[in-house]
Each structure stands twice: as structure tokens, then as C-alpha cells.
Amino acid sequence: MSLLSVKNLRVTFDTEAGRVEAVRGVSFTLGRERLGIVGESGSGKTMTGRSMLRLIRPPGRIEADEMRFDGIDLLRASEREMRALRGPRMAMVMQDPKYSLNPVMKVGRQLTEGLRLRDRLGAGDARKKAIEALQAVQIRDPERVMEAWPHELSGGMGQRVMIAMMLIPNPDLLIADEPTSALDVTVQAEVLKILDDLVKTRGMGLIFISHDLRLVARFCDRVLVMYKGRVVEEVQAGNLMAARHPYTRGLLNCLPRIGGPREPLPSLDRSGTWAEA
Asked: CATH homologous superfamily of domain 1-89+172-255?
């Protein structure tokens, strides 16, 4: 049984210049697996992820033939029902921690707020659980980080704090938007191992949004390739490097290669009929 089912998802924005379609007819299912979504900036990856949690606000509008999570109709769910789902069952790691962490609250208070208000844990137990979450994402001095303000953290550390915050309630579905982009390769490997263990041991579903095609090919089970708000190709992750769609081939050809020729990387050819739709 699918954990998440999406059919003909559309996200539109009414602007002074007219109607803008950010997501156009996206359909997919997600089981207890790792689904990668790739594509260039502006292709609709993040909007697709935010739609699952109904985080698109006016003038944005979400429409779909079906958007169902574990039997729950997300389109018909009330805002109160969505608040009950966000965090405990569905969570999203946003791309940039600078805009996701509250700048006027210390990190420790932000990590423990949900535990105290939602789970009714005492201050001591909530703090202990938050410190364990920071240790799990390889933060070596969690006590200091708990007392830090967000602006005192590096980009990579802020990203790890966000990942820890989302993993604390052990959600059934995690949407990770570029979760490792600001991390060095060693910490990146540790974070990916944490996510992989959650999928395998808890049966969590993971939507992994990334620009890094090599990383997605190595880490995910299936991959959706998005262009101009629609899915142009779905492929098994192990076969991503051999994908045949012109857009996917164009993205792959733009990747630098160690030991490759020292010449400008090719630009994406958008002259095909696929680019006009």
C-alpha cells in the first residue's frame, strides 16, 4: 500500500502579470522508500514538496485529482487536522536554515518547543531528547549549540539543527529539500546514513529533493526528473546515469568530471519539442 499518492497536482499563483503555473500535473506514489526529485532551479521541486504539507499560501493555490497520505485526504483535511499531521507524521527539512530557524529564539528552545507543547514532556526530558537528536546529526558540542542563537551557527550546522528538529518526532514521511547541500562530505555521509536507517528500520517514506544527480543516483530508490513544473521522466535510481530523456541527458552532461577534458561544460539544449510544452 502506498504511503502517499498524488495525482495531477497543480500549483498556481495569481499575479499582476497573470496566472503562473509552478507545478503542472505532477503524479507519483511513494511507499516506504527513498524517492528523489531532481531538476534545475525553478523546475517546481520545492513547490511539490511544500504542497504535501499544504504550505502554499495565497495567492498560491493547490489543486489535484488526489493527494492522499496514509488514507487521509490532504485536500479536504482541515487546518487543525493538518497541524496534527505536520511534525508527528509529516515533516519537511527546508533548504535554507537561515530562513527556517527563528532568529529571536535560542536553538534549544526551538528544539524543545514541540516536545513540551505537543508531547507534554518536562523541560529536563525535552532537553535530553533534543541533545540526543543533535548528537545523532554529528554535532559534537550539543550543550553549546542548545544555548546558541541561530546567527551564531554556520550554514552547515544550521542545516543539521533543522534535520535534528524534523527527526525528533520520528515522522512517517520526511520531505528533505537539499538537506546536505551545506555539509562537508563526511558529515553528508553520516546524515544520509541516518535518513537511510529511518527508512529501513522505521519504514519511513522519504522524498529527497536535490540538484546533485550523482548523490541521488547513489542514495535513492527511484527518481523523478522535473522540468518547468512537470515530471518529464521517472527512472530507477540505479539507471539514472543511463536515462534517455533529452533533458535528463542534458543535466548529466553538465556535470563536471574528474579527469575529464578541460573545456567549457556544454549548455543545455532546449531546442527540442519537449522544452516547448
From this structure: P-loop containing nucleotide triphosphate hydrolases (3.40.50.300)
| Contact by Cβ (8 Å): 30, 2 | yes
User: If you search the block for the grid coordinates 529511518, which residue do you land on?
Assistant: 198
Phi (first) and psi of residue 123, to 5 degrees: -60, -40
pLDDT in tens, 48-100: 999 999 999 988 999 999 999 999 999 999 999 999 999 889 999 887 766 78
**Preceding omega of 59 cis (within 30 degrees of 0):** yes
What are the structural domain ranges in the chain?
Answer: 1-89+172-255, 97-170
Q: Is the peptide bond before 88 cis (omega within 30 degrees of 0)?
A: no
The rounded distance, in Å, linking the Cα atoms of 184 and 277 is 38
Summarised one tens digit per residue, pLDDT across range 97-154 is 667 889 999 999 999 998 888 888 899 999 999 999 998 887 889 999 999 999 998 8
**Rounded-to-integer distance, Cα 51 and Cα 21, Å:** 13
